[in-house]
C-alpha cells in the first residue's frame, strides 16, 4: 500500500514538473474558466478574469501608441459623482495608456481638479441639461455622436462610454478594446431570455419580439472604435427621435435602443458583469473573481431631476 502511494506521488510530481516546463504561453490553458460562458454564439469573446494575459496584451497594444477616450456625463447634481469616478479611474482605468476623459456637463465650475498621470487629461465639454433624468440619459447618444466630428475622430482611437454614478475597483484595461463592445447587465446575467426587459411594443424602434435577442446589455458601459461608436450612437439617437415624434419612449430609455442596436449589429467583444456590478443589490457570487466597475449607492430622490 505504502509503496503504491509512493509511486503515485512520484508520478504526480513528475507530471507537475512537466507542466512547469511548458512554455509560458501555455499558462492560460490552465486558467481556463469552466464556470462561465466564454464565447457568444457568433464567436465573440466574453471577457472574464482568467481569459486574458495582461502582459501579452500590453505588448500588442503599447506598440500601437493608442489613445482611449472615456465619455462621462455629469449633468446637474450628478457632478457629485465625478471626484470618486475620476480618482478611481486614475488608479484602475487603462493604466499606462494615454487617456482623454471627456466630461460632459452643464456645471463646468464643479468639475473637480484631480491629479492625473502622464499622458492623461480631462476635457470638459459644456452641454445643455434637460428637466427629466430620462432625457439626460437618452440625449447622451446624441451628444456622443455629435462630438465625434468635433473631437473624437481626431483625438482618440477607441471610446468607452460610461455612467458616472460608479467607481473603478480593479484593473480595467485594453482587454475590453474591440470594434464594438457591450457589457452584460448584472441584473440579467444568467437569466432566461424571456425575462429580459427589452422594449416589447411593436410600435417602438427599440422593439425586440419575444423569443429573440442574445443578451441583455447595460446602458452604463459600451464602446469600441470611434467609427463604430459613432454609427451606434447616431442610430440610437435617430431611433429615439422617431419614437418621440410618434409619442413613444422605450421602457428603459437609451438602454432599450442600445439593446436593439446590439441585437442587429453583433458586438465583437462582450464584457462580463465583472465590468459592471452592483454589490449592494446583487452581493458577490463566486463566479465574480474581480469587480472592476461598480455602482456607488445613490439616493434617487435626492439626486435625480435636481
Ligand atoms: C449601470 C447602467 O447600466 N445604468 C443604466 C440604467 O440606469 P441608472 O439608474 O444607472 O441611470 P442613471 O441615473 O445613472 O443615469 C444614467 C447616466 O446619465 C447621466 N445623468 C443622469 C441624470 C442626471 O440628472 N444627470 C446625469 O448626468 C449620468 O452620467 C448617469 O450615470 O438605465 C438608464 C436608462 O434608464 C441608462 O441606460 C443607464 O446607463
Ligand atoms: Mn447609473
Automatic annotation (TrEMBL):
Organism domain of life: Eukaryota
CDD domains referenced in this protein's UniProt entry, alphabetically: Glyco_transf_6
Entry keyword set: Glycosyltransferase, Manganese, Membrane, Metal-binding, Signal-anchor, Transferase, Transmembrane, Transmembrane helix
One of the protein's GO biological processes: carbohydrate metabolic process
Signal sequence range: none
Binding site for Mn(2+): 163, 165
Cofactor: Mn(2+)
GO cellular component term of the entry, any: membrane
Binding-site positions, UDP-N-acetyl-alpha-D-galactosamine: 73-75, 78, 163-165
Family: Belongs to the glycosyltransferase 6 family.
Protein name, entry field: ABO, alpha 1-3-N-acetylgalactosaminyltransferase and alpha 1-3-galactosyltransferase
Amino acid at each position: 500500500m505504502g509503496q503504491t502511494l509512493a509511486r503515485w506521488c512520484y508520478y504526480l510530481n513528475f507530471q507537475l514538473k512537466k507542466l512547469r516546463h511548458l512554455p509560458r504561453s501555455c499558462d492560460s490553458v490552465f486558467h481556463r474558466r469552466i464556470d462561465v460562458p466564454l464565447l457568444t454564439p457568433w464567436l465573440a469573446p466574453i471577457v472574464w478574469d482568467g481569459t486574458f494575459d495582461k502582459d501579452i496584451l500590453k505588448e500588442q497594444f503599447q506598440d500601437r501608441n493608442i489613445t482611449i477616450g472615456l465619455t462621462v456625463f455629469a449633468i446637474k447634481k450628478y457632478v457629485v459623482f465625478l471626484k470618486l469616478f475620476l480618482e478611481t479611474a486614475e488608479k484602475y482605468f487603462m493604466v499606462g495608456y494615454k487617456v482623454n476623459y471627456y466630461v460632459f456637463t452643464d456645471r463646468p465650475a464643479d468639475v473637480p481638479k484631480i491629479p492625473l498621470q502622464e499622458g492623461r487629461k480631462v476635457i470638459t465639454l459644456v452641454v445643455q441639461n434637460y428637466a427629466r433624468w430620462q432625457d439626460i440619459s437618452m440625449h447622451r447618444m446624441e451628444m456622443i455622436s455629435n462630438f465625434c466630428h468635433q473631437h473624437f475622430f481626431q483625438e482618440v482611437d477607441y471610446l468607452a462610454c460610461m455612467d458616472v454614478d460608479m467607481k473603478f475597483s480593479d484593473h480595467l484595461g485594453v482587454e475590453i478594446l474591440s470594434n464594438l463592445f457591450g457589457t452584460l447587465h448584472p441584473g440579467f446575467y444568467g437569466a432566461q431570455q424571456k425575462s429580459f426587459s427589452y422594449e416589447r411594443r411593436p410600435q417602438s424602434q427599440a422593439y425586440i419580439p419575444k423569443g429573440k435577442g442574445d443578451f441583455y446589455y447595460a446602458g452604463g458601459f459600451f464602446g469600441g472604435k470611434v467609427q463604430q461608436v459613432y454609427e451606434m450612437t447616431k442610430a440610437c439617437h435617430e431611433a429615439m427621435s422617431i419614437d418621440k415624434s410618434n409619442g413613444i419612449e422605450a421602457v428603459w430609455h437609451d438602454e432599450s435602443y442600445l439593446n436593439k442596436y446590439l441585437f442587429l449589429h453583433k458586438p465583437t467583444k462582450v464584457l462580463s458583469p465583472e465590468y459592471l456590478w452592483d454589490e449592494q443589490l446583487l452581493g458577490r457570487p463566486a463566479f465574480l473573481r474581480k469587480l472592476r466597475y461598480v455602482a456607488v449607492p445613490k439616493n434617487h430622490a435626492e439626486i435625480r431631476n435636481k
